[in-house]
């Protein structure tokens, strides 16, 4: 560990790096690109296409609710937007996010961190796993778990260690038990968790629990991957929200550098633009950038430029106001779905009210021995209802009575009917039981 500033320690994350990430060498072309900007330099480096051959003359964007205000990419911005860019992302956009992270998470300038951009947070999560794990390594994963991550971990042969979560988020007692009774040869170096409005449970981790988990991370020497894809859709009043792992780590542990945080623009600006942000210790961010330059070169210049122009127009305050409006939109949906569930699902399912995000996690009260996968596959189609059975969120693929229900797109007037159809699935399962 190195020391920066007065009494704060900055963890050296390279001690936990994987073997496989060491094999990536700097991209021969991309490592020279920053030098092109030096005054007087004649660059014959990159095989960049000549933008004169591109068919676009303008990109203009009109914004909702702004009296027809248009954002127009001017000539310089347009040529940058249509051209290859740097593997870590557009430097101005990175700066914008770094400033946002200072504001939102209160992190200091001297804590050895940086941001980079990816084609969605999913790509960045996958890359950071490559930085810290070798194929087959054990990984601690909050369960129920997001299948988008469990899926690639399983395919890479990782040992998935389920750490349970409940209405207060990831359970530190379960985590401590797993770590203190660990008998495997290799110890887990990574905990993957979704702290706000988890996919699939909709529950958030409390601040006291986050503090306990951070202490365990220090004691047992692992990194925390904080996937906060729903962090901007928190229904709590801003003054009551739990601070992030990134915000808390210095206060709790007197060190920084153990948290890698993933933010996503997918749920608040556009999922099709594919923009995600990684914030974490500089050496780890540099390794992610190295993987990018070797694999898919860079995140999209075009959508980064669209985002940058929008954010420069909004400013940080405007961006955060937009997120508050989006959170309020989903909070109203959650309340409407909760009212429909109260009406039709009482006695047929149990649930906790989601505190953020887009999902209800229902436990169907099915006859013993029945599970939600089987009930849905037998009767879901016939009853006109689709939802995701719990088994999809259990990394080790046990059957379960749970169901993930997304209320993000469902018009309020269809919520009652959706709940009525779920109720029918449960009633039919019992009827079938009696007929047997
Ligand atoms: C928990 C979680 N993490 C990450 C992602 C991927 O987000 P992105 O669109 O930024 O890649 C999703 C998408 O649904 C998600 O639910």
TrEMBL record:
Its cofactor is pyridoxal 5'-phosphate. Pfam families: Aminotran_1_2. Transmembrane segments: none annotated. Keywords: Aminotransferase, Pyridoxal phosphate, Transferase. The keyword Transferase applies. GO terms for biological process: alpha-amino acid metabolic process. GO terms for molecular function: pyridoxal phosphate binding; transaminase activity. CDD domains: AAT_like. Residues 82-422 form the Aminotransferase class I/classII large domain. Belongs to the class-I pyridoxal-phosphate-dependent aminotransferase family. This is PLP-dependent transferase. It comes from Aspergillus steynii IBT 23096.
């Amino acid at each position: 560990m190195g020391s920066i500033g007065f009494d704060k320690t900055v963890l050296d994350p390279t001690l936990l790096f994987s073997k496989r990430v060491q094999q990536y060498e700097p991209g021969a072309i991309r490592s020279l690109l920053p030098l092109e900007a030096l005054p007087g330099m004649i660059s014959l480096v990159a095989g960049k296409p000549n933008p004169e051959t591109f068919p676009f003359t303008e990109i203009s964007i009109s914004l909702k609710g702004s009296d027809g205000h248009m954002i127009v990419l001017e000539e310089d911005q347009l040529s940058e937007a249509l051209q290859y860019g740097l593997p870590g992302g557009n430097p101005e956009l990175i700066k914008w996010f770094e400033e946002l992270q200072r504001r939102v998470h209160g992190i200091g300038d001297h804590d050895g961190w940086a941001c980079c951009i990816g084609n969605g947070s999913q790509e960045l999560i996958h890359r950071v796993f490559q930085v810290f794990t070798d194929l087959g390594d054990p990984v601690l994963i909050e369960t129920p778990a997001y299948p988008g991550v469990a899926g690639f971990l399983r395919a890479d042969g990782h040992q998935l260690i389920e750490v349970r979560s409940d209405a207060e988020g990831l359970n530190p007692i379960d985590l401590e038990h797993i770590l203190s009774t660990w008998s495997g040869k290799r110890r887990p170096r990574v905990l993957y968790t979704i702290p706000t409005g988890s996919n699939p449970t909709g529950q958030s981790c409390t601040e006291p629990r986050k503090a306990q988990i951070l202490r365990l991370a220090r004691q047992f020497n692992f990194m925390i991957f904080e996937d906060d894809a729903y962090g901007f859709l928190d229904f709590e009043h801003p003054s009551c929200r739990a601070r992030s792992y990134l915000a808390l780590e210095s206060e709790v542990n007197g060190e920084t550098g153990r948290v890698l945080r993933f933010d996503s623009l997918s749920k608040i600006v556009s999922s099709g633009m594919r923009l995600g942000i990684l914030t974490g210790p500089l050496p780890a961010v540099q390794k992610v950038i190295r993987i990018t330059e070797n694999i898919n070169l860079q995140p999209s210049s075009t959508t980064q430029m669209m985002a940058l122009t929008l954010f420069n127009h909004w400013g940080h305050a405007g961006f955060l106001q937009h997120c508050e409006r989006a959170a309020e939109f989903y909070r109203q949906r959650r309340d409407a779905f909760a009212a429909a569930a109260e009406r039709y699902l009482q006695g047929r399912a149990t649930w906790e009210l989601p505190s953020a995000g887009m999902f209800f996690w229902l436990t169907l009260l099915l006859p013993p021995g029945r599970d939600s996968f089987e009930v849905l596959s037998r009767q879901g189609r016939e009853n006109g209802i689709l939802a995701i059975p719990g088994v999809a969120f259990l990394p080790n693929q046990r059957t379960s009575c749970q169901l993930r229900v997304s209320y993000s797109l469902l018009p309020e007037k269809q919520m009652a009917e959706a709940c009525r159809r779920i109720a029918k699935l449960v009633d039919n399962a019992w009827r079938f039981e009696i007929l047997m």
